[in-house]
Amino acid sequence: MTPFASPAFRRLWFSTLTSTTAQGMERTATAWVALETGGGAVAIGLIFAARMLPSLLFGLAAGTIADRADRPRQLLAVAGAAFLLMASFGWLTSTVELLVWQVVLFSFVAGCVQVFDTPARQALVMDTVPRIDAPRALALNALVARFSGAFGAFAAGLLIPLAGVSRSYLVVATIYALSALIVAALRVNQEDRVRITPPPFRQAFHGALRLIVDVPVVRTLIIAGLTCEIFAFSFHSALPLFAQDVLNAGAEGLGTLNAAVSVGGAIAVGLLTLVPGNVRRQPVLAGIFLLYGLSLITVSVTHDLIVAAAVLVVTGFCAGAFDVLQQTLIQMAVPDEQRGRAVGVWVLGIGSAPIGHLEMGILIATLGVSSALMINGLLTFVAALLLLFYAPNFRWTMGARPKPSQS
């Protein structure tokens, strides 16, 4: 737990706690609003796709800015913008009957705000601790994000029936305001960054793109991440209809499913904090990839809320572990001055999520939610097998340790 010896890391950790609590509440509330609009499976897929589209459009730019700007101020700006957005949408939900396009627009704007948080926050974690403690610090930050996300999702599921969705958004806005206050007190030594004159924005942006071409580790991780985003992470857009049509559960049931996913992710990153630094992460990621597909296949044949929640803990475990391992391996594969851009490349990879959410929505509308989950689970499992076949560095071997540059 040595990262907590750093006051800057402690403040960043608490800001992550509040920010992801708000995110967990907002995502559950927005999923419920999507159901209330009555747009159907395709509309729900479109809403989730709109949330992730900014990652594709602005991920590299956000990472490039994180390498050039004051990162704590960037997080402060994000929290302030999120506060205004949630307060405004909460007011809107209390005054008009929302249409699908309005929820899609809100999801897109919320995604635009969030995309500028991730690269700055992840790069800032490594600014607050020595490099040797970085993998554990990243895992601890992800751990609190998963637990607080689970708490936020579960709390929203309880709050919506009691207070209504509009008041739930106002609570989310209040939590973002608290996050802004915590970030405002964050101070990080940026002496090392000041010594290096940053290149022009266009040159830095081009350098971020070159990471994919020039660094085999980054290229392999991005390809694996793209397939996982499209076929595995798209299960999120199936949960509202899965809760309603298969499990016959209301807002509380949806909140329980979302919370189960977050709890599983929290367990995963908690265990990752215990993995010694000399253990190769690539084979762990490959094993998680395989288990991810199997868990989705299992969810697809489940018809009980408790059983579904238990399986989704495993699904969330895989999602959380895959995220943290991919982020860690990408950042550790590049020089310190390119860490923000490396996270930006990762964000660009998750920008493929709109394809997955739309694909999931079309599959649900055509074949039903259970069949859609089954198909994507099978595709995820096959993609993991292909990773093992084409990238030997992701297999467990008894021989010599591979060089870091191998894929």
Largest sheet: none
Rg (CA only): 20 Å
Percentage of residues in helical conformation: over 70%
The helix/strand order is HHHHHHHHHHHHHHHHH
Mean pLDDT: 83
User: From the structure provided, what is the oligomeric state, counting identical versus distinct chains?
Assistant: single chain
Q: Report the strand count.
A: 0
CA distance, first residue to last residue: 31 Å
Strand content: under 5%
List the total number of helices. Answer: 17
State the low-pLDDT regions, or none.
192-197, 398-407
What do you see in this structure?
It is a single chain. The chain is mostly helical. It is 79% helix and 0% strand. The protein has 17 helices and no strands. Helix 3 packs antiparallel against helix 5, helix 3 runs antiparallel to helix 7 and helix 5 packs antiparallel against helix 15. The radius of gyration is 20 Å and the shape is globular. The two termini are 31 Å apart.
Key descriptive features of the protein:
mainly alpha; globular; disordered C terminus; 79% helix; 17 helices; 407 residues
